[in-house]
Every structure is written in structure tokens, then in C-alpha cells.
Batch of 2 targets.
Target 1
Amino acid sequence: MRTISLHVNEDDYRRFQAVAEHEGRSVASLIREAMREHLEREATRRDRPSLRDLAPHPSGALLEPWQRSDVYDEMTSYGFEVHEPSPDGTVIGEAETSRNQDP
């Protein structure tokens, strides 16, 4: 097993010590568990397909671009748990006006 040193906030460390004491464990074992759980969540997240990999819906192109906040609002209205949208309002989709215009 590898030995590491960490610099942590004093208040966070005191709270972590209290949790370890309450659970009858060492702080080191809690840190190892937290690292392992983080790595497992990250591996699971990486293995899931991205929304960008999905094929377009057969109903056609978007009529107007959606911002991240629009997608966030839509998903949360259906009860999905999602992360806050990025503050830059990155565009998720772009309207394909050539498909939607009359010839």
C-alpha cells in the first residue's frame, strides 16, 4: 500500500475525524473508502454513453438552438436529477434551418 500526504482544511479534517470516531474507524480507512468510491463512480460515468452519441430523433431537427439551461429546466421538470447548467450557456443543439425552410 502506498503512503500519501494530504493538505486539507482544518474544519473538514475535524469533521472527518468525528465521523471516523463515530463509526469506530480510522481516518485513513475513510479516506481509502472515499477514494475507492470516487474511482468506481468515475468508471461508471465514463462507461455510460454521452447524450452527444445519441442519434437525432426522427421527428426532425430542432427549430431553434437549446441552451444548457433549457435542457436542465426540461429534465428537472420531469424529476430527473441533473447537475446545474454551466454558466456560459453552452449551446447543446443548433437549428438546422435548411431542413425547416420551404424550397
Target 2
Amino acid sequence: MDKNKENIEHEIQEHEIYEQGLKDDPNATFSQCKNCKTEIRKKLRRCPYCGILNPTVTIKEIAITMTVVIVVMYAVSYFMK
């Protein structure tokens, strides 16, 4: 029971820190979390509401990153011959 209470207190503290950060940075860009659909900062590592990792990363961003990595790997292997 104590661990559950500690987890809840920790989540409340994280949420308060997140809310304070929103007030401190008026130029932050926002997007919806893909899991809980809450408006959050674009570059957060974890959603402060539902806890999902990389809540705003889209398939398009993943595809672009993978394409760049493959092109760089191909270019390096081509010039290493």
C-alpha cells in the first residue's frame, strides 16, 4: 500500500513540474498524445498523463529518420570500398 501511495505522490510531483514548465516556456509547441489525446509539449520523452513513451512521434517522422539512416549507411559503405 505504501508503494502505491509513493507512486501516486511521485506522479503528482511530475505533473506539477510539467505544469510549471508550461508556464515558464510560452514558445513551446504542442501536439496531441497518440494514446490519451491530451495536448502536451511536442518533444517530451514521456506523456505526463498516461506515461506512454514518445507520445508525439509520428510514423512519418520514423520513416524519414530510417530513410536518412539507410542512405548514410549506404554512402559510408560505398566509399569504404
